[in-house]
Amino acid sequence: MAAVTAILALAGMAAGATITTTEPALAAIKAAQATTVPETWSTNVTGKAFDRFYQIWLENVDYVNAANDTNQQWLASKGITLTNYYGTGHPSQPNYVASASGDNYGMDNDNFHDIPSNVSTLADLLNTKGISWGEYQQHMPFPGYQGYNYSNQVTYANDYMRKHNPLVSFDSISSNDTALRLIKNFTSFYDDLDNEVLPQWAFITPNMTNDAHDTNITYGSEWLRSFVEPLMNNTYFWDNTLLLLTFDETETYNVPESEVYADRNRVFSILLGGAVPDDLVGTKDETVYTHYSTIATISANWELPLPGSLGLWCQHHRSLPGPLSESDYSVYRASWPIPATNETCSAGYGILQAVKDTYSGMTPTYNYTAPFPYDAGYALDVGVSYSRNGTTYVSGINGTGVAVYDTSNGTASTSSSSAASSSAAATSGAGINMPALGSVAAVMAALVSFL
Ligand SMILES: *[C@@H]1O[C@H](CO)[C@@H](O)[C@H](O)[C@H]1NC(C)=O
Ligand SMILES: *[C@@H]1O[C@H](CO)[C@@H](O)[C@H](O)[C@H]1NC(C)=O
Ligand SMILES: *[C@@H]1O[C@H](CO)[C@@H](O)[C@H](O)[C@H]1NC(C)=O
Ligand SMILES: *[C@@H]1O[C@H](CO)[C@@H](O)[C@H](O)[C@H]1NC(C)=O
Ligand SMILES: *[C@@H]1O[C@H](CO)[C@@H](O)[C@H](O)[C@H]1NC(C)=O
Ligand SMILES: *[C@@H]1O[C@H](CO)[C@@H](O)[C@H](O)[C@H]1NC(C)=O
Ligand SMILES: *[C@@H]1O[C@H](CO)[C@@H](O)[C@H](O)[C@H]1NC(C)=O
Ligand SMILES: *[C@@H]1O[C@H](CO)[C@@H](O)[C@H](O)[C@H]1NC(C)=O
Ligand SMILES: *[C@@H]1O[C@H](CO)[C@@H](O)[C@H](O)[C@H]1NC(C)=O
Ligand SMILES: *[C@@H]1O[C@H](CO)[C@@H](O)[C@H](O)[C@H]1NC(C)=O
Ligand SMILES: *[C@@H]1O[C@H](CO)[C@@H](O)[C@H](O)[C@H]1NC(C)=O
Ligand SMILES: *[C@@H]1O[C@H](CO)[C@@H](O)[C@H](O)[C@H]1NC(C)=O
């Protein structure tokens, strides 16, 4: 009953309502659908290397399997293949949340989360320069819908899922009626495309059939090409746009020990769009990137301060222990960390003023230069206790090995390790500073050295 009340409130005022951990009643959804009006926000703030940055993520495919797909190969031939791009966690949701705000707060699950309003997102950093943003979530029933899912109403198959929606879990978004209604579905994407009122940053999420989650790489890649190829001929969309095609995470969490660390959570990724210089079309970029690089990229391009919500943008581009963990693939810590607000960070544009104001005078939770002695092999801080199937391990003491990244070519050498540490590695991603997607233009390449 509480759920219905909440969603009816949403119909009149989209903001603020926390909905439910289950799918709301259809009647309530229909009522809100009838009255909730999409928000349109379009601007033209010129960037250094591109004027628009869009992402489309598919789901749960290992690098080698995606690289072997003919439609992925076709798309790659039109742009730059990123051969060392990594997911930042497992399962799905921590990856999406990480891409929105620079940390996953220890999240290691697909639960229903409301992230406190004092945690910033990339919307805050884009807002500092009035750069329009939005999301296009396929089959989301109405703009700003906050429910856990919305299934196909004929078959009841998985269709729209909140866990694949990067911004909706943040209270700073859901408490703002305008912001919430910038999160729209594909109907709005094509309306905004036709009306030439697209935002400058957008995240495009296909449904659970098209994103390969409930299907496979062949199906997902066919859908992806069918979505992207017509856009290539649309000069309004394509000119000065940088489009990232990637996957949230690998299908295989626990990579066999025989495989190099570099393959753990490595996802096949492509940069496309009119912003890609002609001489880079068909090339490969072997720089190590992660989902966090997408935030570094917009910071570098538009000279934006970073959300720094929890300061991770400075030196520490990997997961720290956090309150959203169930201690399955991450490490639980009850408190929300205090960001390091004095850092310059990433391309040198510092931390959002709002974050500095919020945390003024407070001592950062971590030494963000070296929060803990660090086990480079498994991207986990030494001395962190974590459990797998009821067995407790402490990184750097047991259950870890030593592997060292070579950031120039992504290869790694490994020594002793265990099955437990493999999943720790997959959870945390690369423990190095994440560069912007830098080979797009000379100016971007120059910025990489600041990161
Ligand atoms: C952005 O530029 C396009 C093309 O010049 C123009 O049609 C459009 O009105 C501009 N939009 C805004 C919000 O200034
Ligand atoms: C690669 O794709 C081809 C079809 O294009 C398929 O026959 C082959 O089995 C795939 N190889 C692997 C290793 O998946
Ligand atoms: C998409 O959102 C619009 C409102 O913006 C709504 O009318 C439409 O029914 C939605 N589409 C789907 C498939 O739910
Ligand atoms: C996902 O979207 C496609 C259209 O792109 C549609 O054919 C399919 O039925 C949708 N999946 C579900 C489960 O509704
Ligand atoms: C609400 O969100 C919009 C879009 O991000 C932003 O322009 C506006 O400043 C926000 N309002 C408040 C009160 O934060
Ligand atoms: C891939 O998924 C589609 C849609 O579910 C299905 O028709 C096809 O048989 C699947 N292919 C393989 C190789 O499983
Ligand atoms: C795009 O344009 C090219 C040539 O200009 C044409 O060959 C191709 O069929 C077009 N693609 C689509 C999807 O319209
Ligand atoms: C941040 O810098 C200011 C001015 O340099 C200094 O007073 C303050 O102690 C610093 N805060 C932290 C947490 O380092
Ligand atoms: C953070 O830790 C590193 C390594 O122990 C140390 O060199 C550095 O001085 C520390 N920074 C601060 C601000 O305490
Ligand atoms: C944990 O337990 C489950 C079920 O017993 C098993 O399938 C899985 O392989 C175990 N995982 C690890 C890392 O030992
Ligand atoms: C790892 O070391 C910690 C601390 O000494 C200990 O409590 C734990 O039981 C050890 N775990 C294993 C699997 O040996
Ligand atoms: C990658 O770097 C490592 C360490 O510097 C080196 O041993 C290896 O030969 C390099 N691999 C390639 C393919 O360049």
Describe the structure.
The protein has 451 residues and is α/β, with parallel strands linked by helices. It folds into 2 domains: 4-366 and 429-444, Alkaline Phosphatase, subunit A (3-Layer(aba) Sandwich); 372-425, no CATH class. The chain is 27% helix and 14% strand. The protein contains 15 helices and 18 strands. It has an 8-stranded mixed β-sheet, with helices on one face. Strands 3-12 form a two-stranded parallel sheet. α4 packs parallel to α10. The longest helix has 16 residues, at 217-232. The relative contact order is 0.17. Mean pLDDT is 77; it is low at 1-18, 256-262, 309-317, 370-381, 400-434 and 438-451. It binds 2-acetamido-2-deoxy-beta-D-glucopyranose (12 copies). Residues 215-216, 218-219 line the site of one 2-acetamido-2-deoxy-beta-D-glucopyranose. Pfam families: Phosphoesterase. GO terms for molecular function: hydrolase activity, acting on ester bonds.
How is the topology of this model organized?
Elements: H1 2-12, H2 26-35, E1 52-58, H3 63-67, H4 70-77, E2 80-82, E3 85-86, H5 93-101, H6 122-127, E4 133-137, E5 149-150, E6 160-161, H7 171-174, H8 177-180, E7 183-184, H9 186-194, E8 201-205, H10 217-232, H11 235-238, E9 241-247, E10 269-272, E11 284-285, E12 289-290, H12 292-302, H13 353-358, E13 374-375, E14 380-381, E15 385-388, E16 391-394, E17 403-405, E18 412-414, H14 419-428, H15 442-448
Parallel strand pairs: 1-8, 1-9, 2-11, 3-12, 4-7, 4-8
Antiparallel strand pairs: 2-10, 5-6, 9-10, 13-14, 15-16, 17-18
The structure holds 2-acetamido-2-deoxy-beta-D-glucopyranose (12 copies).
One 2-acetamido-2-deoxy-beta-D-glucopyranose binds next to loops.
Protein name: Phosphoesterase family-domain-containing protein
Signal peptide: 1-16
GO molecular function: hydrolase activity, acting on ester bonds
